[in-house]
Amino acid sequence: MIEIVNVTKRYKQLTAVDHVNLSIRQGEIFGIIGYSGAGKSTLLRCLNLLEKPTQGIIVIDGKELTALSDQEVRKERQKIGMIFQHFHLISSKTVYDNIAFSLKAAGKTKAEIKKRVPELLEMVGLSDRSAHYPAQLSGGQKQRVGIARALANEPKVLLCDEATSALDPTTTKSILQLLKKINKTLGITIVLITHEMEVVQNVCHRVAVMENGQVVELADVYDMFANPQTALSKQFVQTVHSLELPERLLLGRKGAIVQITFKGDSAEEAVISETLRQFHISVNILHGQISYIQERPLGTLIIEMIGSQSDVRQAIRYITKRTNQLEVLADVA
Ligand SMILES: Nc1ncnc2c1ncn2[C@@H]1O[C@H](COP(=O)(O)OP(=O)(O)OP(=O)(O)O)[C@@H](O)[C@H]1O
């Protein structure tokens, strides 16, 4: 659906986006995560040519945007909706007129606008706020207007530039739910940038991690959580799944301390009790959690295994075979 081929954006000496290649699939919610200054916004704005890449090609829905004239780009941009962190609503216009504005700009007739605006308001749950002005709305409601406006011309792609960063956690959840609904019911491909791994966990199917203008990792969100490959991804995963053990928990330990990751079905199997049945060891549970990412379970358990060296080794081999993911954090035996 979206092809980003070797895209670079330079501002004088600074390279904000550096040779990025990504292929975003029709109908997916694709996240781009990175710290401030990583180049996420610039890359997102390159997708609808709000920023012109210094080099590289952008193809959306089969059309090479980077090969079009400015006038043609303006027309194509109407098929790409965009929402922003600070909403960018027109303060002197009502909710109705803010949405109608995009339809007018796309040359829709008065009758078409009159039919379409209420449909959009209903979709975002704001039918009773039509005559309000932006100043009379909460942040979440303003973003709902932003979403309605972005969807006005039935885009195939929706770009979200830190769309929930200015919102509290509960409102963030409700806006993310709305984005999920839009993706599911309208089949719109969504690209969102964020610095919050929780947003990625909640809505994205795949995620690219950016650093210094480059994509340093690309993965299914579940795999990123289960097995992050780079130090940066590990940091992001740990912001949601914190597994730092307090030092005092490690004091006076006698056995091997291991971290086990249970993926998919193995998260629901009785691996530990079967281990205890087969080997002469005892186990202390130090930390455990199970999360659901795209409705698939992902479990993490940190345990201390106490027994003879040979029994502990065999038990470790057994668990590794069953789960495929066991890391020895400390062996104080
Ligand atoms: N119009 C511009 N002119 C000059 N430099 C720019 C411009 N826009 C962005 N930059 C620089 O490009 C780099 C990447 O910025 P960008 O906003 O894309 O990062 P980001 O990952 O979105 O970060 P943030 O979340 O803070 O916006 C930064 O060093 C930034 O200062």
From TrEMBL:
<dbReference type="InterPro" id="IPR017871">
    <property type="entry name" value="ABC_transporter-like_CS"/>
</dbReference>
<dbReference type="InterPro" id="IPR003593">
    <property type="entry name" value="AAA+_ATPase"/>
</dbReference>
<keyword id="KW-0029">Amino-acid transport</keyword>
<dbReference type="Pfam" id="PF00005">
    <property type="entry name" value="ABC_tran"/>
</dbReference>
<dbReference type="InterPro" id="IPR027417">
    <property type="entry name" value="P-loop_NTPase"/>
</dbReference>
<keyword id="KW-1278">Translocase</keyword>
<keyword id="KW-0547">Nucleotide-binding</keyword>
<feature type="domain" description="ABC transporter">
    <location>
        <begin position="2"/>
        <end position="237"/>
    </location>
</feature>
<dbReference type="InterPro" id="IPR045865">
    <property type="entry name" value="ACT-like_dom_sf"/>
</dbReference>
<dbReference type="Pfam" id="PF09383">
    <property type="entry name" value="NIL"/>
</dbReference>
<keyword id="KW-0813">Transport</keyword>
<dbReference type="InterPro" id="IPR018449">
    <property type="entry name" value="NIL_domain"/>
</dbReference>
<keyword id="KW-1003">Cell membrane</keyword>
<dbReference type="GO" id="GO:0005524">
    <property type="term" value="F:ATP binding"/>
</dbReference>
<protein>
    <submittedName>
        <fullName>D-methionine transport system ATP-binding protein</fullName>
    </submittedName>
</protein>
<keyword id="KW-0067">ATP-binding</keyword>
<dbReference type="InterPro" id="IPR050086">
    <property type="entry name" value="MetN_ABC_transporter-like"/>
</dbReference>
<keyword id="KW-0472">Membrane</keyword>
<dbReference type="InterPro" id="IPR003439">
    <property type="entry name" value="ABC_transporter-like_ATP-bd"/>
</dbReference>
<dbReference type="InterPro" id="IPR041701">
    <property type="entry name" value="MetN_ABC"/>
</dbReference>
